[in-house]
Specification:
By secondary structure, this protein is α/β, with parallel strands linked by helices. It is built from 10 helices and 19 strands. The chain has 2 domains: 192 residues, Rossmann fold; 146 residues, no CATH class. A 7-stranded mixed beta sheet has the order 3-2-1-4-5-8-6, with helices on both faces. A 3-stranded parallel beta sheet has the order 7-16-15. The chain has a 3-stranded antiparallel beta sheet with strand order 13-12-14, with no helix packed on it.
């Protein structure tokens, strides 16, 4: 197979699975050994390497498409956010690389977090390769950086679109919001047309988007669960939210979340039940969270923990056993589905590493829509709107 697309920071293969939906394939670079094994097992050509030192020369004059989802510690809301001070250095690195000056070494010496400058690496590749099209993705706070990238790409003759997309608007059972950059120097680009909506409405032409895919619908779960995030604390603010609406975003503190069955919550910091909405965003700590289910997941963490009460939990040997409501845990396969991977996607490594990969991946279905917008290749069997009878 001929590869004319290169992907930086591949992870387990979210972008690659999206490309596969469009009949495309790429070669990816990834340093994490477990993620490389996963991508290989899924049939995606992957080079285990450090993107920051890998040469661009082997890809010169061979590449039409470029994809990147770089780590962005300088914009992360997790932990102590020590990398915040590095943001000006990242912007400086992007500026310098866009003008053919490699100042990474001296800027890296000033960084609080050694990973911060990885967010500038795509500019080195874009400057050297000048692909026909490019797609980039990261957390919403990275949007100002993507706008800086877009400014230079426009100066080089690219049409660009930068903005925030919600994965639930494209059929992913999760309200994952991501900052997206789409660029092309061969066609005019814009945001991909949403196929789903939280509250679909008929337009003047008798068409309507599909409703969001709920977590319950995606996983075949029952309705009516409540997620408790902090135990029975009496401090101000909500402790619980109904599982029949998008859940709160998962963080490293989600280890304290657990499920309450058959409850609805109301009052300060809480909201009425709204069925058929996405669930939480899955991140790299899904194994630390209890789970909700009747809507797309909010960002899926890389450490999933919970299924509904009475749901059968699978152990390492594949056996099923009932677990109590407060200890039922989400499986890797279930977390994968919430990211729009197929349930049998071959994640490799320890359970912790598998959840980390799921949580850090780009949802393949969202990836396919973004690449479709960049290339003009239509989504297969695309039905963006339902038609009135």
């Amino acid at each position: 197979m001929s590869y004319d697309i290169v992907e930086l920071f591949r992870g387990p293969g979210g972008w690659a699975e999206g490309l596969r939906m469009l009949g495309l394939a790429d070669v990816g670079l990834e340093w994490d050994a477990a993620a490389c094994r996963t991508a290989h097992a899924a049939g995606h050509t992957t080079i285990q390497a450090d993107v920051a030192v890998y040469p661009t020369a082997p890809f010169k004059s061979r590449i039409k498409g470029f994809i990147a989802s770089p780590p962005c510690q300088a914009w992360s809301r997790a932990g102590k956010r020590g990398g915040l001070a590095d943001q000006p250095l990242v912007h400086q690195a992007v500026h310098d690389l866009a003008h053919g000056r490699d100042t990474r070494a001296e800027l890296l010496a000033q960084c609080k977090d050694s990973r911060s400058l990885l967010a500038a690496e795509p500019m080195r590749w874009l400057y050297d390769l000048r692909p026909e099209w490019a797609c980039m993705e990261e957390v919403p706070d990275v949007l100002p950086l993507w706008k800086q990238y877009a400014l230079y790409l426009q100066q080089w003759g690219y049409s660009t679109w930068v903005g925030i997309l919600n994965a639930a608007d494209y059929g992913v059972p999760q309200t994952r919001q991501r900052a997206i950059l789409i660029a092309s120097r061969v066609r005019r680009v814009s945001a991909p047309d949403p196929t789903h909506a939280k509250a679909p409405e008929w337009d003047l032409f008798g068409e309507c988007r599909k409703p969001w895919v709920s977590m319950a619908e995606a996983l075949g779960w029952v309705e009516g669960l409540t997620v408790n995030t902090r135990g029975d604390r009496k401090t101000a603010g909500g402790n619980e939210f109904p599982a029949d609406r998008p859940s709160w975003s998962l963080t490293e503190k989600t280890r304290s979340w657990f499920l309450r069955s058959g409850q609805s919550v109301a009052g300060e910091g809480r909201a009425e039940r709204r069925p058929h909405e996405p669930s939480v965003t899955i991140t790299g700590r899904a194994d630390l969270c209890s789970w909700v289910h009747d809507r797309p997941a909010t960002t899926v963490c890389a450490t999933g923990r919970i299924s509904p009460p009475g749901h059968r939990n699978r152990d390492a040997g594949g056996e099923s056993q009932f677990a109590s409501p407060d200890t039922v845990r989400i499986t890797v396969a279930e977390a994968a589905v919430l990211q729009s991977f197929r349930p049998d996607y071959p994640f490799q490594g320890t359970k912790t590493k598998c959840f980390e990969q799921v949580g850090n991946a780009v949802p393949p279905l969202l990836a396919a829509h973004v690449v479709s917008a960049a290339t003009g290749i239509p989504m297969p069997d695309s039905q963006p709107a339902r038609t009135a009878a």
